[in-house]
Amino acid sequence: MERNTSFSLLSGNHSHTNSNCSRDNVLKTVVFPVLYSFLFLVGLSLNSVAAWVFFRIPSKSHFIIYLKNIVVADIIMTFTFPFKILSDSNMASTGLRVFVCRVSSVLFYLTMYISILFFGLISIDRCRKTLKPFRGTNAARLTRRKILSGAIWAFLLVLCLPNVILTSKTPTSPYFKCSDLKTQAGLYWHEVVNHVCQVIFWGNLVTVIICYTLITKELYRSYSRTKSQSAGGTICRAPSRATTRKPGQANRKMSANVFLVLAVFFVSFVPFHFARVPYTMSQTRGVLFDCKLKLFFFQLKESTLFLSSLNSLLDPLIYFFLCKSFRTTLFKTLQLPPGTCAWLLRRESDTDTGITPVRDSSAST
């Protein structure tokens, strides 16, 4: 079956092809291992600090609960990088390459889709906070979010576990593909998992787009109200230069904070899933693609996969800029004064979200 040659989303395939279309090029065996080595060292450091800080913070908001889950996913993903480095650079033994197929790559893609799901939930939470900023939370809502988080982990673990169990064949050649290790049932389950993962990504992509469209509309309305109020105030008296600049500065900072989540999602996950479409076609419909084109799509897929891995390095930006509790705890732990990095933050938010929607004065009293 030709579909057996496709790359697994939850089982990986870092392998050789035939000698006429080799993937063992400098990009795969040298450049990416170096990049992943850097990513491992920096990502492990940043996420270790993030975990150390976050688990000193009580889970008092939906946002913090979601961020804590992303921290765990990022740490697990980061620990899979050394195995990919060894495998891609052809420094791994046959046993280690088998481990990459059965376990390491499964964990990598598992954590990727966990992050995608929590990014969708964060987008919904940001939308709710922007549209209904004065709606609080309570213990019951927090408990439901914790149960939902546990259910997400349990669902994806159950989904990917057969990829570990059913990748049980013994390699008959040192140049094996991960699909060569799968049983017949494993190949069918792999296909099911691929479809589920596609639903997860595209469903969350639609969710993110809808949420940030609503957020953008609300921010524009808030900006228009603030601008009209500022213009109306000049009828009675001429405001100072500092006074006239504050509303615009606050809106610009707030908008930058809101769209940081959107930027990280699109940089990390969208390119890979778009590149994966022609790559999968090149693997399953080989007669339509020559060797050079197959190699190009393979390199494109690997490049965008690195962007997905880069998510483990970008997420700490979200923690720092959007979560005041994280910044406060970090500064206290490092014994830094509260004004540290004020040139980056410019203004302190009043919530753990870093988002303070601009409302007209009548609505906030």
From TrEMBL:
The chain crosses the membrane at residues 34-54, 66-86, 106-126, 147-166, 192-215, 254-274, 303-322. It comes from the Eukaryota. PROSITE patterns: G_PROTEIN_RECEP_F1_2. Pfam families: 7tm_1. GO terms for cellular component: plasma membrane. Residues 46-319 form the G-protein coupled receptors family 1 profile domain. Keywords: Cell membrane, G-protein coupled receptor, Glycoprotein, Membrane, Receptor, Transducer, Transmembrane, Transmembrane helix. It is a multi-pass membrane protein. Residues 1-20 are annotated as: Disordered. It is found in: Cell membrane. Its main location: membrane. The keyword Cell membrane applies. One of its GO terms (molecular function) is G protein-coupled purinergic nucleotide receptor activity. InterPro entries: GPCR_Rhodpsn, GPCR_Rhodpsn_7TM. Gene3D superfamilies: Rhodopsin 7-helix transmembrane proteins. This is Purinergic receptor P2Y12. The gene is LOC127362687.
